[in-house]
UniProtKB/TrEMBL annotation:
Residues 140-616 form the Serine/threonine-protein phosphatase 4 regulatory subunit 3-like central domain. This is Serine/threonine-protein phosphatase 4 regulatory subunit 3-like central domain-containing protein. It holds the Pfam family EVH1_PP4R3. The keyword Lipoprotein does not apply. InterPro entries: ARM-like, ARM-type_fold, EVH1_PP4R3, P4R3-like_central_dom, PH-like_dom_sf, PP4R3-like. Keywords: Nucleus. The lineage of its organism: Eukaryota, Viridiplantae, Streptophyta, Embryophyta, Tracheophyta. One of its GO terms (molecular function) is protein phosphatase activator activity.
Amino acid sequence: MQRVKVYHLNEDGKWDDRGTGHVSIDYVERSEELSLCVIDEEDNETLLVHPINPEDIYRKQEDTIISWRDPERSTELALSFQETAGCSYVWDQICTMQRNLHFSSLNSETFHSLNSELRELPAVELTTLPLILKVIVTESGITDQMRLTELILKDHGFFRNLMGVFKICEDLENVDGLHMIFNIVKGIILLNSSQILEKIFGDELIMEIIGCLEYDPGVAHSQHHRNFLKEHVVFKEAIPIKDPLVLSKIHQTYRIGYLKDVVLARVLDDAIVANLNSVIHANNAIVVSLLKDDSTFIQELFARLRSPSTSMESKKNLVYFLHEFCSLSKSLQVVQQLRLFRDLINEGIFHVIEEVLQIPDKKLVLTGTDILILFLTQDPNLLRSYIVRTEGTPLLGLLVKGMMEDFGDKMHCQFLEIIRTLLDANALSGGAQRANIMDIFYEKHLPELVDVITASCPEKSGNTSEGASRGIRTKPEVLLNICELLCFCIMQDSSRTKCSFLQNNVAEKVLHLTRRKEKYLVVAGIRFVRTLLSVHDDYVQNYVVKNNMLKPIIDVFIANGNRYNLLNSAVLDLLEHIRKGNATLLLKYIVDTFWDQLAPFQCLTSIQAFKVKYEQCLENAGPKSTADAVDPRRRVDERALDKEEEDYFNEDSTDSDEEDSASASNTEKEKPASSNIQEEQPKPHLSNGVAASPASSSPRSGGLVDYEYDEDDEEYKPPPRKQPEASEEEGELLSLKRKSPCVEREQEPSKKPRLGKNSKRENVFAVLCSTLSHAVLTGKKSPGSAGSAVRSIVAKEPEDSRSSEEKNNNSSREN
């Protein structure tokens, strides 16, 4: 309870504190009304008792105060709550109570205003029909339907008396009375009471109720529903049913369905239709439960089905009854339905269906397939286990044979659905059984399906009458289903593709469909190849290329021309799949073999993209070896110096340092000033990181390339930028310029041991020249920086050359 203060507004307009207590909403003694009660927290005395008023008199202020004006005492009252949550809780309770009171008073007023005289129904007589119609139909609303239903059910003689008045009106041909009775019966049905429906659909009243509904005022002539049900509707018992309750429920279910679908189809709303369907569903469950529990009935049913003395007409009726019995089992719970199907399997229902599938009557064959579909819907492993367990069973073969037969306008695709369900690899269970069934299918029945395609297609493209001349007239729909099944098999188990579809030439035989005149069959063959290539197996691609399997597809594409149709889209989709799958072998195969035919279609985006992908594959095939053959300097530039070259340059620079150190000491004595200047300048470095000797700064030119000395660096202008194609010629010219007397002296017989090292050194300078060419090409962007870079490289090369020449001269003097 919530802690509050009670306030009362006095005559002076001030609030008087009446005390502090706890408030609650509860019933007060000797009263049936909910009231606000406040009990004093000190002495437990009642501070306030206020019945909840349905009128809008309450106000909520500042989240902690509820005030109102008491209409009985004409006083202003208020409750001040200690907590905001307590005030909100009591306010919600008051609002809820007001809504309930308002709704109750509204219902009570409506009921008393509209049904003040409905304490009992009027007596059913011919003269009281208008009054009964007014009570049931005219003044009947939502609020009094329960009351009317209660009165009708309480009056046990109401329907019997009403049917008596109906007979009188029918005998007297009182059309007005018959119309009123029609509206009365229709209004009673529209009350949608399950108890009333159960009563009027009983065997005693159902036919008379349907008779009352024959006289619809909205129809010019009366209907003859009773005559149809009595004379034209015949109840067939394939096997005698002895239980009267089962017979009663069967008849009642049919009549309710006839009433729902024929008699009152125009006036029933969704709620009443749902109620009638629930009655039918309950009756079906009762019928199936009673029949399945009757063991003698099930045994007699299968004994007659297996008996050779049973006539064909009787066998048909038994199969139809078995199909309806299995269909009605859907009204049972899943556990009970599964138990029933297992009992039927133990009785030999699959063996019965094998016999049914061999009967020439195609309607009966389709009924057998419907039964199989019901079992597959419940649990596919029931049928799989039977096929695997029973050796030599013809059931799977009969299903495959059914795919190849023509059933006219019937649903021959049911065989396709059954086989697909048996081979479905996405099932949650039954993996071993499914694998065994696939083995049986691939070994025994796959060649049969492929032979149907081969036999129904002409041997040459365009000769569409050849298949008919052979006497083979397979419907195109059958061929389409076979092709769809083959595609499904590839997707389910791609590992069997090599041994089942390639080694037996299945793929080539399926492509015979491209010779048919039906375009959708040609598309089916293309779609089969598309599915086959989705395996992404090298063996499959090699097989396609080796056997030139895409030739028929390209031929039909070329023959189709520029027509934009399903065939055109299917071929383009195949090419797009090959392109996106990066199938290099197939790309080269198609372009190298068929590009002359595909070239006229380059306007299509898919063909253009296919050719671009082909060119990219050629570029990626061997770019490194091609580049090395064209430009050897690039190959040298991309790799590091090997260990032998490193050792050579290190050894050469060490000898040069020792020789130059002696000459440097003599030079320091003669020209100390110049040596000091040279010491202050930083030492240049070669490209391999070895520091150059001090003698490299000598002005004497003896390097591989003779460059004129630039006295004024500011007047230097970089050469114009050349095209990248001229870089190789430029390298050859530079290499020719690098030939100097120093190099000629190195080629003398006395210097033959150094020839190998100098040839390697020329490669190193070729690298420097390549760097020089790149620097010149970028000269236009930054002339200053490029020029300085060129001059630094040019300065390093003569210095290194002069150092080498001095070293060679010193060596000759020592010798």
